[in-house]
Every structure is written in structure tokens, then in C-alpha cells.
């Protein structure tokens, strides 16, 4: 049984007071006992604030990115060990916005994943095709190469500690959600590809989240699919009622 995960990616939103308000509004609304892991990924500057607010609850903290070196002359970067120190249990790596706007490649994503895993962070590894790639029939090839290159050198015992987020780029922040069938088809492909890279049991234990305009209205249908184990939620995670309704989908 794979435990469902609902993760909120706050992207570049929420200064201290707003972050405090949002997290304190979310906490009483989410059913912590419903068997769903809940993760919040705010910006670096409010990690401490959100950590203090979730202390004593089962809600977990994620960062939205990290660097691959632990320390050194790398102005502006934040290392996996520093994220652990700030109270993070998880880190999102390879989000399509980072690939699109900050030049992240499968190779840099791989370095980040390797470094993050070595500090004990659970990685939420994002993959997904663009609209042009989908329309030219390349979806599975793109997913395969993102997984193969992103996970190069990652051992079997580490893959089961990771979470994969399938986020079709054309569905992120656009209001267009993949249909339940499109999402399930991609998730099932990802699981089969992982089984080929590792083995069947490893692939069956990995949680694969869907991301792309998830809302209270579409979460149930997505979660009813065999290979969809949760959601990475962007826009809708910025509203306490919407995020809680998604987290309480069952
Ligand atoms: C995301 O930021 O990972 C995301 C899926 O965004 P949205 O839910 O807004 O599409």
C-alpha cells in the first residue's frame, strides 16, 4: 500500500505574515488522521516560520530547490544540509519552472537529487513533457530520458525513498488538467519504466504524484486511478480552503 501524499508548492508567493496566516488557516482544516501525508513547500525565507507553525502536527516541510554542494563559495545557493537544519524533510527538485527559467537540466537535477538523498532528505523529483512534445508523440520518450538521466547512479534502496511528480508542463498553472486517463497512462508508464530500471517491487513502492491545475473538483477522479498516489498542488495550495479540500479528498 502506497500512502497518499498531497504537497503544496507555494512557488514565489507569501511573505512572513501571509505565510503565517496561510499555514495557521490550513492546519485546523486538514484531517491529519485520514492517512494522507501532507507537505508544504514555501519559499526559503519563511521555512522557519512555517516549521514553527507545523511543529507538533504531522504536516511536513519541503523546500522548492537546493544546490548540490554542501558548502563553499556558491553565493546565493542553499544546500541540502542547510535545508535539514531548517527543518525540511523533503525537497522538490527539477520543477519545470526551474528547468524553464533557471536552466536546470537532467544533469544538474541528477546532482541535486544525489546530494539531497545523501543528507536524508526525501526528494520530490518532477518530470513532465511540454505541449509540443505531447503533440509530436514524444511524451514517453521525454519521460524516459528525464527519469533515466535524473536518476543516473541512484541506487535501488534510495529510489524507494523518493517521490516522483508527473507534471505535464502544459497543465501547470494553465487551468488545463490532464484527464484522469491521460494522467493514469503517464503514471503507469513511469512505474513500468522504473520497474525496468530497478525492479517490480521498487517501482510498486514509489509514490507518483500528479501535478497540473489540481483543484478540489478534480482531485477525487485523479486519486481513483491505480498509479496516482497523490498530488503536487501549486495555485490551489495558496488558498487554505482549497488546499484542505484537496488534502481531505477522501
Ligand atoms: C506546481 O507548481 O507544481 C503546479 C502543479 O502548479 P498548478 O497546480 O498551479 O498547476
Automatic annotation (TrEMBL):
One of its GO terms (molecular function) is triose-phosphate isomerase activity. One of its GO terms (cellular component) is cytosol. The active site is at residues 95, 167. Pathway: Carbohydrate biosynthesis; gluconeogenesis; Carbohydrate degradation; glycolysis; D-glyceraldehyde 3-phosphate from glycerone phosphate: step 1/1. Homodimer. Its EC number is 5.3.1.1. Involved in the gluconeogenesis. Catalyzes stereospecifically the conversion of dihydroxyacetone phosphate (DHAP) to D-glyceraldehyde-3-phosphate (G3P). Substrate binds at residues 9-11, 173, 213, 234-235. This is Triosephosphate isomerase. It comes from the Bacteria. It catalyses: D-glyceraldehyde 3-phosphate = dihydroxyacetone phosphate. It comes from Geobacter pickeringii. Belongs to the triosephosphate isomerase family. Keywords: Cytoplasm, Gluconeogenesis, Glycolysis, Isomerase. It is an enzyme of class 5 (isomerase). The gene is tpiA. GO terms for biological process: gluconeogenesis; glyceraldehyde-3-phosphate biosynthetic process; glycerol catabolic process; glycolytic process.
Amino acid at each position: 500500500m502506497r500512502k497518499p501524499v498531497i504537497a503544496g508548492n507555494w512557488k514565489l508567493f507569501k511573505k512572513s505574515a501571509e505565510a503565517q496566516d496561510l499555514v495557521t488557516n490550513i492546519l485546523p482544516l486538514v484531517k491529519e488522521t485520514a492517512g494522507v501525508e501532507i507537505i508544504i513547500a514555501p519559499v526559503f525565507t519563511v521555512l522557519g516560520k512555517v516549521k514553527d507553525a507545523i511543529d507538533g502536527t504531522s504536516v511536513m516541510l519541503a523546500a522548492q530547490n537546493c544546490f548540490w554542494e554542501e558548502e563553499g563559495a556558491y553565493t546565493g545557493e542553499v544546500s541540502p544540509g542547510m535545508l535539514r537544519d531548517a527543518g525540511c524533510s523533503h525537497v522538490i527538485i527539477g520543477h519545470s519552472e526551474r528547468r524553464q527559467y533557471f536552466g536546470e537540466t537532467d544533469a544538474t537535477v541528477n546532482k541535486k537529487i544525489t546530494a539531497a538523498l545523501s543528507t536524508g532528505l526525501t526528494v520530490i523529483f518532477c518530470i513532465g513533457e511540454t505541449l509540443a512534445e505531447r503533440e509530436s508523440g514524444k511524451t514517453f520518450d521525454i519521460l524516459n530520458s528525464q527519469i533515466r538521466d535524473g536518476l543516473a547512479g541512484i541506487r535501488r534502496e534510495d529510489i524507494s525513498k523518493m517521490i516522483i511528480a508527473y507534471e505535464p508542463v502544459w497543465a501547470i498553472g494553465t487551468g488545463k488538467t490532464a484527464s484522469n486517463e491521460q494522467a493514469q497512462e503517464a503514471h503507469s508508464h513511469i512505474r513500468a519504466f522504473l520497474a525496468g530500471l530497478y525492479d517490480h517491487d521498487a517501482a510498486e513502492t514509489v509514490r507518483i504524484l500528479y501535478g497540473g491545475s489540481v483543484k478540489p473538483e478534480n482531485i477525487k477522479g485523479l486519486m481513483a486511478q491505480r498509479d496516482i498516489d497523490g498530488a503536487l498542488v501549486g495555485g490551489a495550495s495558496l488558498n487554505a480552503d482549497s488546499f484542505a479540500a484537496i488534502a481531505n479528498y477522501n
